[in-house]
Amino acid sequence: MAETDEQLMLAFAQGDAGAFDRLYARHKRTVFRFIVRSLPSRADAEEIFQDVWMKAIEARGRYEPRAKFTTWLYAIAHNRLVDVWRRKGLTLVPLDDETDEHAAIDPPDDPANEPSAQVATRQAMARFEIALAELPPAQREAFVLKEESGMSIAEIAAATSSHEQAVKSRLRYATAKLREALDG
């Protein structure tokens, strides 16, 4: 039976370092993607990423599973991002080209591998990345938490100290703006 994130964090608090390794392996990619999409500098994102995990390690003795572990972890990330935004001001976020080492490889005869399809896909992704970067930070944050991390409205609200209605509105506006960019 698979251990829940909450069980792993509690085991880590009791001295099981391997439990932390499993938590980190489960969440490192999505947490990093959330942070890197929220900051203009990859170097800043890497620093915040390390800081988030250090704060999680430091808090292990105080951790209580009142909410999902991911809600707690993303609340730490959100709070660190807010600190950075306040210190540096709000700016647009360029998205780095990343290769997904776990992405499925398309078979050679797949129509998606045709050069024209690949160009169209790259153009759509470029429009999407620009539109995502141009979203107000609160909308971008809600969208990335929902889509990248799979968090529910309630979890996003808890992680960002917002009301569920505010999160729903942010998601609705973000989705509309992103659709408009892709359709345009």
Examine the secondary-structure arrangement and name the CATH architecture.
Orthogonal Bundle
Helix amount: 55-70%
CATH topology: Rna Polymerase Sigma Factor, Chain: A
What is the end-to-end distance?
47 Å
Spell out the helices and strands N to C.
HHHHHHHH
Rg from Cα = 18 Å
Number of domains: 1
What is the makeup of the main sheet?
none
Structure, described:
With 184 residues, the protein is mainly alpha-helical. The chain has helices at 5-13, 17-36, 42-58, 69-88, 115-134, 137-147, 153-160, 164-183. The protein has one domain (5-95, 109-183): Rna Polymerase Sigma Factor, Chain: A (Orthogonal Bundle), CATH 1.10.1740.10. The protein contains eight helices and no strands. Helix 4 (69-88) crosses helix 7.
